[in-house]
Amino acid sequence: MTTPTRSRGAILAIATAGALLLTGCTAGDPAPSATPAMDLPFGPSTPAARGPVEQVTWMLPAEPATFDFDIDSGAAENTVFANVCERLMAVQPDLTTVPHLAESAEWVDATHVVFTIRDGVTFHDGSPMTAADVLWSMQRHAADGADESDEYANVVAMEQTGDREITVTMAQRDAIFIQAMAGNGGMVLNPRVVEAQGDAYGSPGTPDACSGPYTLGEWKPGTSLTIEKAEHYWDASREVLADEIVFRWADQSAVVNALTAGEADGSYLDSPASAIPLQSVDSVSLAQGPSTNAWVLLATERGPLADERIRQALSLALDRTGIATAAFGGLAQPWKTPIGSGAWGYEAEAFQAAYEELEGAPASPSADDLAAAKALIEEAGAPDEPIVVASDGGSVRNVVSNALVAAAQSIGLEAEIVTIPSAQYGDFYSDDAVRGQADLFSDEYYISKNDPVGFYKNGASTATVNFVGFSDPEYDALVKEAFAATDDAERADLAIELQRRWVEATPWIPVAQSPSTLALRSDLTGVPSSAAYLYYPWAADLGTAQG
Amino acid sequence: MLAALRRVAGMAVTLVVASFIIFAAMYAAPGDPVTFLIGNPENLTPERIAAVRAEYHLDQPLLVQYWLWLSGALGGDLGTSFQYHQPVADIMASRMPATLALVAYAAVLFTVVGIGLGVWAAVRRGRATDSAIVGATTLAASFPSFVVGILLVSFFSVQLGWFPVTGAGDGFLDGLHHLTLPAIALSVGALAIVSRVTRQSMVEQFDSEHVEAARSTGMGGAAVVVRHVLRNAWGPIVTMVALVIASLLAGTVVVESVFGISGIGSLLVDAINTHDFPVVQAVLLYMVVAYMIVTTVVDLLLPLLDPRIGNRVKTS
């Protein structure tokens, strides 16, 4: 812990945090700011650490609810247990995937994947990890109703086919399956510990059942949760720098205060906007990195947006730069696709090049864009009823909705905002009566695997979130092909084609990508700044900047 | 004895009615817990929604759901949190100490300071001190507690570094250190109310005949204040203090979020936002119970402070 700072920045931080409460916003929706954005370092990781650190206090957006990931998991749980639990595959800070508890994972033919289990891995209780343990864990994740069971949707059978070998039989080729084994669906648990705890496993007071570089220490519900460096971590070659991490949790405004006052040493912030007041705090350094998160406007099945041309016109006229500045202080980027650059977990250069060529979703509409949009409206005919966009009164959604109304007006369309209670906003995905109230609703969307194919499947005519009824047989065929393409370069080509078709048809209007945002005490470094922290043991890399 | 029984029965009925109203209100509130229970929008298929509804009995009619809850609650089981997957009683138990400590600390502050200021103002009534106290407390009461909280955090924690920014602390001394600013923020509004009631109640006593009589016997100023004025003024003061405490037990939400304290208030807001029905139900009932306990304690305390009240009850 550092001594509390007394900088001018502190006042600014509080003023903004205060404004947050005064306007009645929820945490993570700080008030719009006119402060010009500082250029934050953007990349997969912060510079490597030079020396170890004893104890670090880390802020989470909420208290973890359970560490039984077959029940549920969210950002808070993942941030903590990425350090405690390990998976068959591992996500790296640059968001690529490498083998981990599995030495290798290979497609032996069109429907069989073989995982070779690493030798010499031990769980925290000292017992060795066997192939039977791996099989037991995978079956637990695949069980009906388990939170991760969707990762196993195409799995027909799982068998131990050798001392250190598991063979998974798939109904059809699923190129994303191996990647998914770097997520919570590939977590390997110690069956002896889980079974000894019974139903209590995962709640405060029970031990973890994992093999990672950290073990779960004391979890004081409502107060703090501690993880400690594992005493006999199986991978002696892996340097583990931080001895102990104490996690605490609070609303984003209190997280900002705790970081400003030096009471907390770091946090992966809930939203880039939370970093606005921290930009001027000397004792805190900020960094951003790729994530799959992006703000989008999802079209519903209601009304005039069924016509693709109206959606395209709105997309052409939307001022994304204005939104990024007003809602995120410039800490989010205008974005042309519905998924952040963190999805590019392979062939990143090809994806980057294809992204740059995309058209139809300008950062700020030019005169040509507006003319093209007006031409589209003329062709389609302006709808009789005004276009309705939903907001929940939160500051980001307010900015996005107002920008959409402005975009519509700039091309001669009428548009209005309907406000839905934030407690009900999530029902847009489940309740067609709620969707019946608006033509568009904004949301921050993300996927858990770093593969655009995992997102673009949402444009298939059968997808649950394809509300507007976008239907293109060629697109559907491409989705199938992409899922079957186990060769990265081939899959990237297919994903790029899906992306091009999606952006052209615009079932959702892309708005801005919200990068992963890290706030860290200035003399600490080493951790990833990308969204890898949700699955990668970031605490092991956390150390001092000076040796 | 009979009166006590009647009182307990009354409380039981109140609890059942309150629990039903809360339950029905949640049932009628917009928003569907299924969206949060499933989480990933891509998994929100009609089959999955139906399965989750059945699992949590959300497909049952209101009365059936209420009965399931009530029969569990009567057996001491308040249910399992949708969000935390832990027994609601365990979650409440882990959040309760922070909130109770915060309210207790605030109660000590506004009682001692509020009554002190009220007495001072009453003794000096009509003079500059009186006006200053009345003016200052009125001004203080007009600041919402979260504004006070933000000001306190920015100056005393972030700027000066005297107090911690977040959390409720560990153990007694650390707890005092952590809870001082939140308790001040929470007690500022209450302080004005208590000091005004104290002042008013005492002013009335000053003008009463028995005080005149005591003065005429040549009794000194301080003795009159303590033995006659304050003693007879206690009733309204204690009642007001109790009502304020009861309202604080349900009103720590905003201060808890400003100071990052995981208490009952922040738990309630979180539970409402995620449609965690069993937790919302339990927290709101806790508030009803807290209110009943505080008012009962006052009813029992008042006759002890002022024997005339007890006599009235007996003779009626």
Automatic annotation (TrEMBL), chain A:
Entry annotated with the keyword Mitochondrion: no
Q: What is its main location?
A: other
Where does the UniProt annotation locate this protein?
A: Cell envelope
Q: Give an example GO molecular function.
A: peptide transmembrane transporter activity
User: TM segments?
Assistant: none
- Gene3D superfamilies named in the record: Dipeptide-binding Protein, Domain 3, Periplasmic binding protein-like II
Against SUPFAM superfamilies, the record matches this protein to:
Periplasmic binding protein-like II
**Gene Ontology terms: cellular component:** ATP-binding cassette (ABC) transporter complex; cell envelope; periplasmic space
Query: According to the UniProt entry, where is the signal peptide?
Result: 1-27
Mind telling me which InterPro entries this protein's record contains? Peptide/Ni-bd, SBP_5, SBP_5_dom
Domain (Solute-binding protein family): residue spans on this chain = 97-463
Assigned protein family:
Belongs to the bacterial solute-binding protein 5 family.
Q: PANTHER family, from UniProt?
A: PERIPLASMIC BINDING COMPONENT OF ABC TRANSPORTER (PTHR30290), PERIPLASMIC OLIGOPEPTIDE-BINDING PROTEIN-RELATED (PTHR30290:SF10)
Listed name of the protein: ABC transporter substrate-binding protein
Taxonomic lineage per UniProt? Bacteria, Bacillati, Actinomycetota, Actinomycetes, Micrococcales
Automatic annotation (TrEMBL), chain B:
Recorded coiled-coil stretches? none
Domain ABC transmembrane type-1: from-to ranges: 96-298
Q: Which GO terms describe its biological process?
A: transmembrane transport
Q: According to Swiss-Prot or TrEMBL, what is its membrane topology?
A: Multi-pass membrane protein
Its GO CC terms are:
plasma membrane
The UniProt record lists the keyword Nucleus:
no
Q: Which InterPro entries match?
A: BPD_transp_1_N, MetI-like, MetI-like_sf
- UniProt keyword terms in alphabetical order: Cell membrane, Membrane, Transmembrane, Transmembrane helix, Transport
The family line of this record is: Belongs to the binding-protein-dependent transport system permease family.
Its protein name is: ABC transporter permease
In its UniProt entry, the species of origin is given as Agromyces sp. G08B096
